[in-house]
Write a structure and sequence with these properties.
binds L-tryptophanamide, globular, binds adenosine-5'-triphosphate, mainly alpha
Length: about 325
Amino acid sequence: MTKPRLYSGMQPSADSLQIGNYIGALMQWREMQQSYDAFFSVVDLHALTVPNDPAELREKTRRTAAQYIAAGIEPSRSTLYVQSHVSAHAELAWILSTVTGFGEAGRMTQFKDKSSRYGTDATSVGLFTYPVLMAADILLYQTDLVPVGDDQKQHVELTRDLAERFNSRYGKAFTVPMPVIQQDTARIYDLQNPTAKMSKSAETDAGVLWLLDDPSKSAKKIMRAVTDSEGSVRYDRQNKPGVSNLLVIYAALSGRQIPSIEDEYAGRGYGDFKKGLAEVVVNEFGPVRERALALLDDPAELDRVLAVNAGKAEEVANKTLADVYDKVGLLRRA
Ligand code: ATP
Ligand code: LTN
């Protein structure tokens, strides 16, 4: 029996991933690659929708791929590749843009947020069509499931609408994918501002735990994390966002339940709790960091692995693209 297909990706928007990417995405991907035919991409074309230094973008792309592998995505099991290595992504995005309504694209909340932040002049058309490229990523592979954070749910809904519209207008070319929305409990917040999502492009560094940071630096950040004046280690998202966030990180990385951690630290101060958490974080990230740095030490080998996987991705993608070209009536090259 063939396994259902899974597709997800992340932008190479920083040198290092943060702990939210690890807990909210990579840990799930690692688990799901066992039972699904998984495709994971580093979406470098998407990263071009905001200003980038070319040399830095190249480096971030490699680093992101290395961190996928270091976190346990197996490039021999899952098709882990760089989006721009498979030209069908850009090509299908063009075709899909012709079946996307202008108003429909304009309703995407991520576009509205980003464009109002940057202003009209700094907002590119690429930022506007970002979700159409994402739809192309997903639809090229006849994807069944798309694990994403809830901020991407609207984009997957658009993808479904485009797939259904195309299929009914031109004949069935695409599987209509289902989103798998990461659980709320897997959401990690900024250590200094525990009501804001931890993010790669956060403005300040103190609240972000980077996968590739020196372990002693991560431990320091944890010791300085914002808590409250109550002094008891107790999960209460509403009134104790800082401590609750630390508990979620602790539970996710140790595989323990929150009540058991609360019990362990009952009657002890935040200092002890933070020390315990720092140990958990360092134990988990230390080896991941080592593996990532070792992979980055041999970029030629990493590039070779990515090229092999791009070849595998291309086989699937080109088949879908050829079918789509036929269906819309493009003349075949003799
Ligand atoms: P950027 O700041 O560039 O938008 P980001 O760190 O917010 O980056 P994305 O690249 O948007 O992350 O997301 C990659 C994956 O990581 C997504 O699946 C997303 O849901 C997950 N993710 C990102 N941040 C968190 C977080 N704080 N908690 C849980 N999951 C997260
Ligand atoms: N937009 C997503 C990244 C992304 C993606 C995809 C996720 C691009 N293409 C296809 C799932 C499937 C983000 O910002 N997290």
